[in-house]
Amino acid sequence: MARTQPETFAALEGLYTSQSSAPLVVFGVPFGDPPDLGAKFEIPGLLSWMAFGDANAQVKGIDAFPKENLPPLWLTFVSFHNMVALGMWFILVMGLAAVFLLNGTLWSKRWMLKALMYSIPLPVAACQLGWVAAEVGRQPWIVYGLLRTSQAHSTTVGAGEILFSLIMFGLIYALLFAVWIFLMFKKVRSGPQIEAPPQAVLPAPSKAA
Ligand code: HEM
C-alpha cells in the first residue's frame, strides 16, 4: 500500500508529515486541521521498516498530497487502529487461553472464561472496522487515480431511496440480532446436555435356575 496507494497508507497510519525513519503509531487521537495526533505512542523507524524493509527509508505523509486527493483522516485512522487493536487482543487472549488449556487450569479461571465469552462479538466488530478502513481509506477514488466517487454515483437512484434501503437492512439485521441473542440466552440458561451414563445390560434370568 505504501507503494501503490501512498495517500491511504499515510491516512491509515496517521503519518501526517513526510519523513525518513517514520514511526509506527501504536496509539493516538487524531484531531485538527492541519491534522495532528494527540496522546500518541509511537515506535520510531518501525513504519519505514515495515513498508520498505529499511528503518531509515523515506515515507510520504499526508503533507505530500493535494488536499482533494485525501481520504477523511479521522475515520480512516480510528477504524484501522481499532481493527488492529482487536487483532492484537485476539492474539493475546487466545494465546493465554491456549497456555491455560495445556496446563489444565483453563476451566477453573473464571476471569479467563469471561474474557473469552465477552470477546465473542468482537471479530464481527473488527470486520466492520476493517471494511470501514478500506472503504473510507480509498476515498476520493472509486478507481484509484482514474475515477472519483463523486463522478461514479448513480444519477437515477435518489438519496431518499438509498436511505430507505439502509433503514430496511438495518431493521432486518436488528431483528436477526435480537433473535440470536434470545436463542443464545435460552441455550445458556438450559445448560449443557449431560448424557446419562450407559445402563448396564444384565443377562436375562435363566429359566433352568
Ligand atoms: C492483527 C492486526 C490487523 C492488521 C495489521 C490488519 C490489516 C488490514 C489492512 C492493511 C487492511 C486493508 C485496508 C485497505 O484496504 O485500505 C485490512 C482490511 C480489513 N480487515 Fe484487517 N487487520 C488486522 C486485524 C483484523 C481482524 C482481527 C479482522 C476481523 C476479524 C479484520 C478484518 C478486516 C476486514 C473485513 C477488512 C476489509 C477488507 C476489504 O473490504 O477489502 N482485520 N486489514
Question: Could you characterize the architecture of this molecule?
Answer:
- The chain is mostly helical and 209 residues long.
- Among the domains are: 6-69, no CATH class; 72-139.
- Helices cover 51% and strands 12% of the residues.
- It has seven helices and six strands.
- The strands form three sheets. The chain has a two-stranded antiparallel ribbon. It has a two-stranded antiparallel ribbon with strand order 2-3.
- The radius of gyration is 27 Å and the shape is flat.
- The relative contact order is 0.09.
- The mean pLDDT is 93.
- The structure holds protoporphyrin IX containing FE.
- Protoporphyrin IX containing FE binds at residues 8, 83-84, 86-88, 90, 123, 126-127, 130-131, 133-134, 137.
Please describe the structure with a list of short key phrases separated by commas or semicolons.
about 50% helix, about 210 residues, two-stranded antiparallel ribbon, binds protoporphyrin IX containing FE, mainly alpha, single chain
Radius of gyration over C-alpha positions, nearest whole angstrom: 27 Å
Query: Gap between N and C termini, in Å?
Result: 87 Å
- How much β-strand is present in the residues? 5-15%
Q: Report the bound ligands by name, code or SMILES.
A: protoporphyrin IX containing FE
> What integer is the average pLDDT?
93
**Main pleated-sheet profile:** 2 strands, antiparallel
Number of helices: 7
Topology as a string of helices (H) and strands (E): HEEEHEHHHEEHH
Identify the strand order in the major beta sheet: 1-4
Apparent shape: flat
Structural class: mainly alpha
Segments where pLDDT lies below 50 for 5+ residues?
none
Percentage of residues assigned to helices: 40-55%
How many β-strand runs? 6
